[in-house]
Amino acid sequence: MFEPILIAQLQEAEQVRSMRPAQVAAASKSAVLLSPVQWSVLSLTSLLTLWWLVSWQGWVAPLFLPSPQAVLAKLWLVSNQGFMDATLGQHLAASLSRIGLALLAAVLLAIPVGLAIGLSPIARGLLDPLIELYRPIPPLAYLPLIVIWFGIGEFSKVLLIYLAIFAPIAIATATAVRAVEPSRIQAAQSLGATRVQLISQVIFPSALPDILTGIRIGLGAGWSTLVAAELVAATRGLGFMVQSAAQFLVSDVVVLGIAVIALVAFALELGLRYLQARYVPWHGRG
Amino acid sequence: MSSLRLQQVSLRYESASVPVLDAISLEVNAGELVVALGPSGCGKTSLLKLMAGFVAPSGGEILLDGTPVRAPGAERGVVFQDDALLPWLDVLGNVAFGLKLRGVARAEREARARELLQLVDLGGYETQRIWALSGGQRQRVGLARALTADPRVLLLDEPFGALDALNREQMQALLLRVWQASRKGVFLITHDIEEAVFLASELVLLSSRPARVVERLKLDFGRRYAAGEAVRSIKSDPEFIRIREQVLSRVLGALAVAA
């Protein structure tokens, strides 16, 4: 869900960076009518208007495409009275606590593992193949096995999301550690840094911007996995809400659920970008 | 009075057929400014890495006050070509970093860092972010950082190589003032002939790979600057020009022999 957005943004930033001043001027001249944000608002407003128009004119049956008003009304109803024995807030809280728990576990374990892989050839030899082995497998492919082993309870879901988040963070950390400028390390050594000081005061802070990017990518992967996991086995959660609403053909709840899932993902992404801007402002300006 | 001595030091990387350094002997004593001058790629940076302890020599010995150098350490301060500053710390934090590693209390290390920032003309820049500084300012922070740890010798790896001519001349003058104030032994490598002749109290001319010492010159232009003479007056002195040309022809000669 996140990765394509992220990559597109990176490419865009890269293009802008590689442009000569004249090209940048030419590129911004073509967008002289509106700022990029204004264009974004325009495209989103157009989409909403089109949606409203289609449902208002009755071009598509409400079963297939409920009107915006119906979805908003459902937002009110599900927030207050609930759907499938839980309010929207409870579904949301169930999903958020799962991803929060998985993220916490992944950050606590993946960063040390990534540091070890980046710093020690032995750890790299031992752990790298294990991560590379499971990483390319879509989590939903091994979900059945996890369910057989650990049942359909909370643990299985959190474990599945944890696995999805772990690999991107561990790999980002290991790569970042190996990319630390040698002169930075040598400078600290010439100031008398011990190995522990070198890791905690030079290597880790140097790697932090890329670790945060790894967390962003991991969180995106985790969120997609979470929703998918709740489609399979759950009694609460946004994915479960969408899935059961679909079974009863309550399409306005389906649309509502999808919209909430998208908004939460967007909010998480913004939150992490804020953390990056706040805590690693030197990123890219070294 | 500290001294860093290299005795018949050689360096050969396993994969390479030609050694990088061949039987280099030199001495950096307190109060001396030794400049190693050589063509690009001759192994100057490798020489400095040996002295700093980042690389072990294949032969010969490196002694700091009689003790063999085996690893990097705070008694040999290094200033890097690419400043190698830590961007998450402000200017003061970078300069005080060495003392922080040693566990010196905050107030004390910051007071010392402030003094050194004054010495490199960066008083008032304490809370600036590293990325907001110019190249010359960054190098001055790097110099102050290396000095805070109070090393016995100071090693500089082409510290002004990336600066424009004007900035470079100011930095050379600054380095001479710092050198005179600290009375430390300084070792600097450069490929800039004028810079070498101006700064050096001893100029060591290296050949291209494998680097050997082809000439040693005792010079006093740096001391003349430190004694109060103006930079331009020294650099336009016929004696300065004569030695610069002599060194240039030796460098060209060394290159021709190598080719």
From TrEMBL, chain A:
Domain called ABC transmembrane type-1: residue spans: 92-276
One Pfam family hit: BPD_transp_1
Record-level GO BP terms: alkanesulfonate transmembrane transport; cellular response to sulfur starvation
Bilayer disposition of the protein: Multi-pass membrane protein
Transmembrane segments: 31-53, 59-78, 99-121, 133-152, 159-180, 245-268
InterPro entries: MetI-like, MetI-like_sf
GO cellular component, one term: plasma membrane
UniProt KW keywords: Cell membrane, Membrane, Transmembrane, Transmembrane helix, Transport
CDD domains on file: TM_PBP2 (cd06261)
SUPFAM superfamilies given in the database record: MetI-like
Keyword rRNA-binding among record annotations: no
Subcellular location: Cell membrane
Family designation: Belongs to the binding-protein-dependent transport system permease family.
Name of this chain's protein: Taurine transport system permease protein
Organism: Chitinimonas taiwanensis DSM 18899
From TrEMBL, chain B:
Keywords, comma-separated and alphabetical: ATP-binding, Cell inner membrane, Cell membrane, Membrane, Nucleotide-binding, Translocase, Transport
Residues covered by the ABC transporter domain: 4-233
Gene3D superfamilies reported in the protein's UniProt record: P-loop containing nucleotide triphosphate hydrolases
InterPro entries: AAA+_ATPase, ABC_transporter-like_ATP-bd, ABC_transporter-like_CS, ABC_transporter_ATP-bind, P-loop_NTPase
Any GO molecular function: ATP binding
SUPFAM superfamilies xref list: P-loop containing nucleoside triphosphate hydrolases
Pfam families in the record: ABC_tran (PF00005)
Segments crossing the lipid bilayer: none
PANTHER family the UniProt entry points to: TAURINE IMPORT ATP-BINDING PROTEIN TAUB, TAURINE IMPORT ATP-BINDING PROTEIN-RELATED
Family, per entry: Belongs to the ABC transporter superfamily.
UniProt protein name: Taurine transport system ATP-binding protein
